[in-house]
Amino acid sequence: xxxxxxxxxxxxxxxxxxxxxxxxxxxxxxxxxxxxxxxxxxxxxxxxxxxxxxxxxxxxxxxxxxxxxxxxxxxxxxxxxxxxxxxxxxxxxxxxxxxxxxxxxxxxxxxxxxxxxxxxxxxxxxxxxxxxxxxxxxxxxxxxxxxxxxxxxxxxxxxxxxxxxxxxxxxxxxxxxxxxxxxxxxxxxxxxxxxxxxxxxxxxxxxxxxx
Length: 211
Description:
By secondary structure, the chain is mainly alpha-helical. The chain is built from 9 helices and 3 strands, in the order E-H-H-H-H-H-H-H-E-H-E-H.
């Protein structure tokens, strides 16, 4: 099972791409409601407007056309609205610029940018806070009980059937470690040929490049 596009080798005539959170795993709502949004409120000190901000976070990431967007894109959108409606978000433009231009939106990519900036004597508080927030989200997700991170009923049978006739690739904007852990926990990795997460690039890039 490959965890990068370079390692993936086509074996069948057909390709089936499956997202993880909200598609195979019934985990998308709980992660955003219990982890992503609350960690943003805590990191940026937004407790005064907690209820309104969390409701809007969930709209952006769960209940509108931007559902399933990369975590850093969702963060950038949410903070821009907060900056305009509640209070100024320091150095927000640096985060927005990185989100708009980076070929990879992941913890590792953000860590590398912060490190490269530090070598040049450049410090962006928004990038630092986004990195702390993302790690806090991952930690918060890891604390969710196993029975709160289950696949949808019948996913194992559907994947097994698809895997007989097609290459099955997980394409997710989530953290690779979390995806591997959850799919392995429920025995789903045996029905996949590759797992491509946020560190592999955008979903569109992963799908077109892998095939």
